Amino acid sequence: MRAFGLFVATAGYAGYFRIAPGTAGSAVGLALLVAIRLLGGPGLELGVLVVIVSIGIWASGVGERHAAREDPGLVVIDEVAGMLLTLLWVPLTWATAVVGFLVFRLFDIVKPFPARDAERLHGGLGIMADDLVAAVYAMVVVRLFVWVSSALVTA
After folding, report:
1. How many CB atoms lie within 10 A of CB 67?
2. How far apart are CA 9 and CA 77, in angstroms?
3. With 90 as the cut, is the pLDDT of residue 52 above it?
4. What's the start-to-end Cα distance of the chain, in Å?
5. What is the pLDDT of residues 57-110, one digit of tens each?
6. For residue 37, which of 77, 96, 108 has the smallest C-alpha distance?
7. Domain limits at 109?
8. What stretches of the chain show up as alpha helix (H) in DSSP?
9. What total of structural domains would you count in the chain?
10. How many CB atoms lie within 10 A of CB 32?
11. Long-range contacts of the stretch 49-55 (C-beta < 8 A, 24+)
């Protein structure tokens, strides 16, 4: 089970990228979202997000124990979940994908309140929680972007 946990925690080993593993994990999340959109509807999108968050809490703990430190960089399943939440049920275009990716990475790095506090939760829950909070901020920005851009097109 440890090997499976590390596979999940590292998002298929994307977490082992030497440069910007969090960005690699976010790219995996975006690619997964594209695949979900091609295969199914909104229910599948939410279902996959719930499964990723649930199993990600456990797998993040496995990754933490493997690395023998808190919130190690190789654990990127939290970025996958963050990207899925950022773009949940948002019309997926090149523009929304780029904006969502960039603002999620920004909020994940900056960790606005209460993301930094959520990061202090114990184990895998803390690893996942701060990215989910960052994703909520990013989701708001993406939805505002969609609203403003659609208003400009119809004006």
Report:
1. 16
2. 5
3. yes
4. 55
5. 999 999 999 998 888 899 999 999 999 999 999 999 999 999 999 999 999 999
6. 96
7. 2-154
8. 2-9, 21-39, 42-67, 77-86, 94-110, 115-119, 123-154
9. 1
10. 19
11. 49/81, 49/84, 49/85, 49/88, 52/77, 52/80, 52/81, 52/84, 53/81, 53/128, 53/132, 55/8
Secondary structure class of 87 (helix, strand, coil): coil
- Contact present, 84 and 35 (Cβ < 8 Å): no
CA distances from 115 to 41, 100, 101, 131, 134 (A): 29, 17, 17, 7, 6
Per-residue pLDDT tens over the stretch 124-142: 999 999 999 999 999 999 9
Asked if 82 contacts 108 with a C-beta cutoff of 8 angstroms, the reply is yes
> Rounded to an integer, what distance in angstroms lies between the CA atom of residue 90 and that of residue 107?
18
133 Cβ contact list (under 8 Å, min separation 6)? 111, 112, 114, 115, 118
| The pair of three-digit structure tokens given for residue 28, joined into one six-digit string | 């995996």
DSSP characters over 7-28: HHHTTTTGGG-SS-HHHHHHHH
Rounded to whole angstroms, the Cα distance separating 50 from 5 reads 17
Q: For residue 73, what are its two tokens?
A: 């960089």
How long is the chain?
Answer: 155
